[in-house]
Write a structure and sequence with these properties.
The complex is a heterodimer of chains A (300) and B (171).
Chain A: H1 6-40, H2 42-81, H3 83-118, E1 127-138, E2 143-147, E3 160-163, E4 166-174, E5 179-183, E6 190-195, E7 200-205, E8 212-215, E9 228-231, E10 243-251, E11 254-259, E12 268-273, H4 282-299
Antiparallel strand pairs in A: 1-2, 1-12, 2-5, 3-4, 3-12, 4-5, 6-7, 6-9, 7-8, 8-11, 9-10, 10-11
Helix pairs in contact in A: 1-2
Chain B: H1 3-15, H2 17-28, H3 45-56, H4 63-77, H5 83-97, H6 99-102, H7 107-133, H8 139-167
The chains are: A alpha+beta (300), B mainly alpha (171).
Chain lengths: 300, 171
């Protein structure tokens, strides 16, 4: 069937190249269309992204394990080399922390007593889901992680994601078996924060670089390098008091923050459900939808 | 089963490897490496693949396959949708139109060609990304990503050349 007379080929060849050229332009057009669609209907694109991620998740999970094992092996070896120095440093730190512990115990007891006296309403205790990081991308265009826990494990959009050192981002998309974490460094990330010692409010924005910036500070706010930054809990997206980072530099260009979390070394993260409704209140949307549906059937 | 059937199956299996390998590179580029600082400048591995196959076997990596690779890259890495589709299609188109230039040239020329093409790709991705976000993105990261891609190119290209010699002899 493939061997046809060459006369047909002679006509078909330029036609084929013409079709290909049109196809090329068509696909370029489709790509631009997709970009526009991403701007117009971000929810739809998120949905598709979540589904595709979910489909690839098993492969990513399988690939991420050997890589993690190798890197852990290398890390173990590196740590072995400096084990004596580390030991000395840790002993010193331990002595210092023991002093802090007594201070902290005293303050805790005092705090509880005072809170009882005042009848303070306590924050809800969080439920944690621990998940493995199976993919990640940080660079000039996006900063995100994919974790191997999803809707089935109780992960919901908008939940805070923390590492051992502090907050790292929030869940931006979730599907059945996987979820996508928008890192604090992403250009789309906005987190309400506090400067710990003087309680000044600010918004921390990412810029797709390793450092984030503080914006919307009240006029006359005093910020100095090495100030600690914590989440403020405003807006209800994150609970208050999660460690974020320290102020790295203050200049005319803005206030830069060095985050506590080290994204490169993350292998497991904790997804915290603080019972907060947050930016995206899915339950309200769902219940209102149900309500509407219920109303309709009721009329029947 | 006839011998012809197995031959055909073998042929098909061989001829989808360029796409399969490219797909693998797209997925590999998002696997966390745990190397400090690497993630910020992780190279776009699939770019090497598209460049290579566009020169040597464009019939085995057709246009729509490039589109799918770009789409998957966008969806997995979380870049603005369409960004890497456009970048990949540009690279593919440019290389295909200059294919004659590369025919029978040395590895250095082949590498140099990648340097030029991927530079265009880097600038394009930066312009598109900045336009999409309405903000000037960090160009340093893109530059280092470009340099790392150049460094990693010979390794992947060498594997591809070997692969091609071993499994895709017949044109």
């Amino acid at each position: 069937m493939e061997q046809r007379p060459s006369a047909l080929l002679r006509i078909a060849a330029p036609l084929k190249s013409l079709v290909q050229r049109f196809m090329y332009l068509g696909l370029i057009g489709a790509a631009f269309g997709l970009m526009l669609l991403g701007k117009i209907d971000a929810v739809l694109v998120d949905r598709v992204r979540a589904e595709v991620t979910d489909a690839v998740a098993p492969i990513l999970e399988a690939l991420s394990r050997p890589v993690a094992t190798v890197s852990k092996g290398i890390q173990n070896f590196q740590e072995l080399v400096v084990i004596r120095e580390d030991n000395a440093v840790l002993k010193q730190q331990n002595a210092r922390l023991m002093q802090w512990q007594t201070v902290a115990r005293k303050l805790q007891a005092e705090n509880i007593a005072l809170q009882n006296l005042l009848g303070v309403v306590h924050d809800k205790n969080a439920n944690y889901v621990s998940a493995r990081v199976i993919a990640g991308s940080s660079g000039a265009f996006s900063n995100m992680l994919i974790v191997n826990a999803g809707q089935n494990d109780g992960v919901r959009k908008g939940q805070a994601v923390t590492s051992d050192r502090g907050i790292i981002g929030r869940i931006s998309e979730v599907s059945n078996r996987s979820a996508r974490v928008l890192l604090l460094t992403d250009i789309n990330s906005r987190v309400p924060v506090l400067i710990e010692n003087n309680r000044t409010r600010a918004i921390m924005t990412g810029s797709n670089t390793s450092r984030t910036k503080l914006i919307h500070l009240p006029p006359g706010a005093r910020v100095t390098p090495s100030d600690r930054i914590i989440t403020s809990g405003h807006g209800g997206a994150f609970p208050s008091g999660l460690p974020v980072g320290i102020v790295a530099s203050v200049s005319d260009g803005g206030i830069e923050v060095q985050l506590f979390a080290d994204f490169a070394k993350l292998e497991f993260v904790r997804i915290a459900d603080f019972g907060l409704k947050g930016l995206v209140d899915m339950s309200v949307q769902k219940s209102s939808a149900k309500h509407k549906a219920g109303g309709k059937t009721g009329i029947k | 089963m006839s011998v012809a059937f197995w031959q055909k199956l073998d042929q098909t299996a061989r001829s989808i490897t360029p796409f399969g390998l490219s797909l693998l590179l797209v997925i590999l580029s998002v696997v966390p490496t745990h190397i400090p600082g690497y993630a910020q400048i992780a190279p776009i591995l699939a770019l090497v693949s598209i460049y290579h196959w566009a020169i040597y076997r464009p019939n085995l990596l057709p246009l729509f396959a490039v589109f799918i690779l770009g789409l998957l890259q966008d969806l997995l890495t979380g870049t603005p949708p369409g960004l890497y589709i456009l970048v990949f299609l540009t690279v593919y188109g440019v290389v295909l139109s200059q294919r004659r230039f590369f025919a029978g040239k040395s590895f250095t020329v082949y590498w140099f060609g990648f340097a030029v093409v991927s530079f265009v790709a880097s600038v394009e991705s930066w312009v598109l990304g900045s336009a999409w976000n309405f903000a000037l993105l960090d160009f340093n990261a893109v530059t280092f990503q470009y340099l790392l891609s150049l460094g990693i190119f010979p390794i992947i290209a060498w594997i591809f050349l070997r692969w091609q010699q071993a499994f895709l002899q017949q044109d």
